[in-house]
Amino acid sequence: MRKNIKASLINSQGAVHFDETGLAIDKKRQWLHVASNERYTYYEAHEKRGKEAVDSIGILPNFIGTAVHDCWKTYLQYTDCDHSLCNAHILRELNGISDLEKQSWAEPMKNLLIEIKKEVDLNWNIANALTLDKIEAFEKRYTQILEDGFKEDYIANSESYAKKKAKKSASLNLLNRLSTYREQILAFMHDFDIPFDNNLAERDLRMAKVKQKISGTFRSVSGAKAFTRIRGYVSTVRKQGMNALKCINSTFTENPVDPTLA
User: Fold this and answer.
1) Are 234 and 248 in contact (CB under 8 A)?
2) How do the pLDDT tens digits run along the chain, 262 residues long?
3) I need a labelling partner for 153 at 20 to 30 A (CA). Which of 61, 93, 188, 226 fits?
4) How far apart are the C-alpha atoms of 196 and 178, rounded to whole Å?
5) Within its chain, how far is the Cα of 101 from the centroid?
6) At how many degrees (to 10) do helices 221-239 and 2-10 cross?
């Protein structure tokens, strides 16, 4: 079943969410990786976090749909698929810019992203994307806020930037990301099948974090692997409205429930 879930995610034509979180296995820090959508969840524990692990898992390197993630550079190395960035992460960073650096451009950008999401939520059941005039209007405002932001950040940090090897402010780092990846950030208004955020993957990882808080660690690699196999199956059948206990019981019979055939 696990192989079938993995293959179903690879062959998915829609959005697939990717994320990872630290995991204690045999007293060592390792990583739990997740790939998921509304129907399937696949977990794999790996001693590495980066490209070596993602290549070994084998989903993202073979995926040609839209990968939803938090702009971690490893994910962006895979170019056979499209990318969409998590706006929930961006909203949190914008709140930080407003609260800590007191830069005024962050609030309009936050309000704009929320406004676009509300417009998408109002139209998702009657269209596949926002109308061209709305898209152009939102993109124009987005561009203007970026221009204002770059000017404000330069004024606020001009003395610091004049020094050799000057460190960029958190504001400038975010502005650069908002500028470089604007298509990936605003993808959700061009295609309503693309989500606003990566919250699905974060929810799929939450149970593993709860398990770790209770037990503290996985004592062995084999135990972690068993957990990921079982948890991925349980998450998948629940997403499809099946009874998890009945499905687990079926795996001990001649006719196990395969959620990829449902």
Assistant:
1) yes
2) 889 999 999 999 889 999 999 988 888 899 999 999 999 999 999 999 999 999 999 999 999 999 999 999 999 999 999 999 999 999 999 999 999 999 999 999 999 999 999 999 999 999 999 999 999 999 999 999 999 999 999 998 887 887 777 788 999 999 999 999 999 999 999 999 999 999 999 999 998 878 777 777 788 889 889 999 999 999 999 999 999 999 999 999 989 999 998 7
3) 188
4) 15
5) 26
6) 60
Q: At what angle do helices 170-180 and 87-96 cross, to 10 degrees?
A: 150
H-run or E-run covering 136: helix 132-161
Distance CA 69, CA 83 (A): 8
Strand order in the sheet with 82-85: 41-46, 28-36, 15-25, 66-69, 82-85
Pick the closest to residue 54 from 73, 41, 27, 40 (CA basis).
Answer: 73
